[in-house]
TrEMBL record:
Keyword Magnesium recorded: no
Class in the EC hierarchy, top level: transferase
GO MF terms, alphabetically ordered: N-acetylglucosaminyldiphosphoundecaprenol N-acetyl-beta-D-mannosaminyltransferase activity
Organism: Caryophanon latum
Function in brief: Catalyzes the conversion of GlcNAc-PP-undecaprenol into ManNAc-GlcNAc-PP-undecaprenol, the first committed lipid intermediate in the de novo synthesis of teichoic acid.
Pathway(s) it belongs to: Cell wall biogenesis; teichoic acid biosynthesis
Protein name: N-acetylglucosaminyldiphosphoundecaprenol N-acetyl-beta-D-mannosaminyltransferase
Catalytic activity from the UniProt record: UDP-N-acetyl-alpha-D-mannosamine + N-acetyl-alpha-D-glucosaminyl-di-trans,octa-cis-undecaprenyl diphosphate = N-acetyl-beta-D-mannosaminyl-(1->4)-N-acetyl-alpha-D-glucosaminyl di-trans,octa-cis-undecaprenyl diphosphate + UDP + H(+)
Length: 238
């Protein structure tokens, strides 16, 4: 099910519901792009038609950000569970390990995808990561050939948004995988190069507050949230 938040589609399912959809798609070989939706992206999409199209053309849009949950409450919608990009990746990896579905990791600095692979193999014994490729290979044909030779069902791309989603859309018709997710800095988190907020902040949905305390320069970006909620409230009065 989808809900519209300021013109952007967002899935209403929680992690369990999304796992059913993703792995059903793998069985049907029905390709899908997973994108993370947060208030900052929605506000940018209002001003950028190409970004709006990219987000809405994706098959699965996860509600990554407490602001999206609050927006859904304001418009009496059905989005009740936050689904973060990194946790979506981890849940997909966990489920793929149980079902022996092969995975490929593409992106990041040299060595980071390998470190992420090693961490995932520790977290999910039996996981089948059939290949990695750093994001510094200039020849796209080489990247595509390596992915297709490995024949993964799931491809995680770590390039930052929207570059990673644009790369996926430009290449997925010629690639073997069924499920594609842009995962930003998730490889660095797995590799231990970047620390996530402590569990308390994650569970409370206020990782943004932890990051703001660590990086006060993010304040301008975080101001998108109150503006976003005001826009949502206005749109529901019309």
């Amino acid at each position: 099910m989808k809900e519209i938040v300021l013109g952007v589609k967002v899935n209403t399912e929680d992690y369990d519901g999304l796992m059913v959809e993703v792995f059903d798609r793998i069985e049907r070989k029905d390709k899908a792009l997973v994108v993370a939706i947060n208030p900052e992206k929605i506000m940018k999409a209002k001003e950028d038609p190409s970004l709006m199209k990219l987000l809405n053309d994706a098959e699965i849009q996860i509600p990554d950000g407490i602001g999206v949950i609050l927006a859904s409450k304001l418009q009496k919608g059905n989005i009740t569970s936050r689904v973060t990009g990194v946790d979506m990746m981890l849940r997909l990896c966990e489920e793929a390990a149980k079902r022996n579905k092969p995975i490929f990791l593409y992106g990041g600095k040299p060595g980071v995808a390998e470190q992420a692979k090693a961490k995932l193999e520790t977290l999910y014994p039996g996981i089948n990561i059939v290949g990695t490729q750093d994001g510094y290979e200039k020849n796209n044909d080489v990247v595509r050939a390596k992915i297709n030779e490995a024949k993964p069902d799931l491809l995680f791309v770590a390039m930052g948004s929207p570059r990673q989603e644009n790369w996926i859309n430009d290449n997925r018709d010629t690639l073997h995988p069924t499920i594609y997710q842009g995962v930003g800095g998730s490889f660095d988190v797995l590799a231990g190069n970047v620390k996530r907020a402590p569990a308390f902040y994650q569970k409370a949905g206020i990782e943004w507050l932890y990051r703001l305390m660590k990086e006060p320069s993010r304040l301008k970006r975080q101001m998108a949230l109150p503006k976003f909620l005001i826009e949502v409230a206005k749109s529901n009065k019309k």
